[in-house]
């Protein structure tokens, strides 16, 4: 029976067992066999609904995070176009790293192979429907945005101050808390931030003897920026992340990786 679907295997053995029992018990056993076969078929026909329901349950457990990431990774560019590239990458990451392992454990692996669009649609719907608090209305002016980010850090317990516009060496905000010094570059953009900002803040961390460095933006980051941030240890943040930043930083091994080193 190798190579056949689980449903076909169940129907085969139900028929074999039913036929054997019917030899002794006659029509009642045949009726029971028919009922069992019908139940197996109905269970198979209901499989797409159960698959969708399972994907929805898993997604809803992460609804708040999905909704927040969708808001963070979608933005309107200078031409009025809504750019969703970052969110589409985030949605794919969630499906591959969170949904698929649980789907395979639950026995829906064969369904996932042909229903990727169904999963993406469910994740999208869950993210859109979750009611986040109103957007903070972050300022569009670059200098005002730097002060806005500093204020968010101050309100969450950091001693934060914007640097001078000149001579900042790529650092817009310096923040300290619990013996940790953080340097931040703030980018209020209409497009994803590239790796130049990561390079600048990594160098600024060395200049200011900082423990950690971060780039904060309203508009997400390019794949190249994310790759370089992974190498240098620079944090890539949306300004929504700042209020909870202190609780997310590890207490040990917090030093930034040296530029160009490991």
UniProtKB/TrEMBL annotation:
<dbReference type="InterPro" id="IPR007560">
    <property type="entry name" value="Restrct_endonuc_IV_Mrr"/>
</dbReference>
<keyword id="KW-0812">Transmembrane</keyword>
<dbReference type="InterPro" id="IPR011335">
    <property type="entry name" value="Restrct_endonuc-II-like"/>
</dbReference>
<protein>
    <recommendedName>
        <fullName>Restriction endonuclease type IV Mrr domain-containing protein</fullName>
    </recommendedName>
</protein>
<dbReference type="Pfam" id="PF04471">
    <property type="entry name" value="Mrr_cat"/>
</dbReference>
<dbReference type="InterPro" id="IPR011856">
    <property type="entry name" value="tRNA_endonuc-like_dom_sf"/>
</dbReference>
<dbReference type="InterPro" id="IPR052906">
    <property type="entry name" value="Type_IV_Methyl-Rstrct_Enzyme"/>
</dbReference>
<feature type="transmembrane region" description="Helical">
    <location>
        <begin position="12"/>
        <end position="42"/>
    </location>
</feature>
<keyword id="KW-0472">Membrane</keyword>
<feature type="domain" description="Restriction endonuclease type IV Mrr">
    <location>
        <begin position="144"/>
        <end position="245"/>
    </location>
</feature>
<keyword id="KW-1133">Transmembrane helix</keyword>
């Amino acid at each position: 029976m190798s190579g056949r679907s689980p449903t076909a295997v169940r129907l085969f053995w139900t028929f074999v067992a039913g036929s054997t029992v019917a030899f002794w018990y006659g029509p009642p056993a045949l009726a029971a066999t028919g009922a069992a076969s019908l139940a197996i078929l109905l269970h198979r026909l209901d499989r797409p609904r159960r698959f969708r329901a399972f994907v929805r349950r898993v997604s809803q457990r992460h609804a708040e995070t999905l909704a927040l990431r969708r808001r963070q990774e979608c933005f309107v560019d200078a031409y009025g176009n809504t750019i969703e590239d970052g969110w589409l990458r985030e949605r794919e990451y969630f499906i591959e790293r969170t949904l698929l392992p649980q789907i395979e454990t639950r026995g829906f692996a064969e369904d996932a192979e042909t229903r990727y669009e169904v999963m993406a649609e469910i994740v999208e719907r869950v993210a859109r429907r979750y009611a986040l608090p109103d957007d903070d209305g972050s300022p569009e002016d670059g200098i005002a945005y730097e002060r806005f980010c500093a204020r968010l850090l101050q309100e969450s317990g950091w001693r934060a101050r914007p640097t001078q516009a000149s001579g900042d060496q790529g650092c817009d905000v310096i923040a300290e808390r619990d013996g940790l010094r953080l340097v931040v570059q703030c980018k209020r953009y209409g497009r994803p931030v590239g790796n130049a900002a990561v390079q600048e803040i990594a160098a600024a961390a060395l200049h200011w003897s900082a423990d950690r460095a971060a780039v904060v933006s309203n508009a997400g980051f390019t794949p190249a920026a994310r790759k370089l941030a992974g190498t240098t240890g620079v944090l890539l943040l949306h300004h929504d992340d700042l209020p909870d930043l202190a609780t997310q930083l590890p207490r040990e091994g917090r030093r930034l990786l040296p530029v160009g080193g490991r």
